């Protein structure tokens, strides 16, 4: 059986992330990567794709000049919350923010629900299953979360491979959260 290998990479940090704001189409922060520093991490035979937003296209450029935009990897549609800080929402729309955090079908912002995002990503993942190749996809945190939820299917024990010397970070701040470390470039990813 041939294998489809998918490497999901979260775009580099933006000012919106640093300020805990819902994103706009902002650029990544200037982190001063040397040309080619990340492009050598993957075999040249890989297929490089990215979401259409500026931050993902800029990040993908660090992995190669041949990135193709895939609309299925676009960020969640945050509706009227684009550019708004979490703190502002807590003050002005606390109940709406809480509803969105607790109900995956909720769309108080008028955009895309978590459920809709997960369905979109599941369709995209299914489209990759028939192509045995290595796909490197630069996308957004919510798209990566949706892919992980799809793969884990709620009964994930035998679907998780833990490689030697791998590290998984869990943090508890009122609820357990999985933290996936970046690729080792300080402040980049």
TrEMBL record:
Which Pfam families does the record match to this protein? His_Phos_1 (PF00300)
Please give the name of this protein.
Phosphoglycerate mutase
Provide the taxonomic classification. Answer: Bacteria, Pseudomonadati, Pseudomonadota, Gammaproteobacteria, Pseudomonadales
Family annotation (Gene3D superfamilies) = Phosphoglycerate mutase-like
**Source species:** Pseudomonas fluorescens
């Amino acid at each position: 059986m041939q294998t489809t290998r998918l490497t999901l990479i979260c775009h580099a940090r933006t000012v919106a992330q640093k300020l805990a704001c819902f994103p706009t189409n902002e650029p990544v922060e200037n982190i001063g990567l040397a040309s080619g520093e990340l492009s050598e991490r993957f075999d040249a035979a890989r297929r490089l794709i990215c979401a259409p937003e500026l931050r993902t296209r800029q990040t993908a450029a660090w992995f190669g000049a041949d990135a193709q935009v895939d609309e299925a990897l676009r960020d969640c549609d945050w509706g009227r919350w684009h550019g708004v800080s979490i703190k502002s929402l807590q003050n002005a729309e606390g109940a709406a923010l809480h509803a969105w955090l607790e109900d995956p079908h909720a769309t108080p912002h008028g955009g895309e629900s978590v459920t809709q995002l997960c369905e979109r990503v599941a369709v995209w993942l299914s489209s990759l299953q028939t192509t045995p190749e290595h796909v490197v996809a630069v996308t957004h945190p919510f798209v990566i979360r949706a892919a992980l939820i799809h793969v884990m299917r709620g009964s994930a024990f035998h679907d998780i491979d833990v490689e030697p010397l791998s590290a998984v970070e869990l943090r508890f701040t009122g609820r357990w959260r999985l933290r996936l470390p970046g690729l080792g470039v300080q402040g980049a990813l």
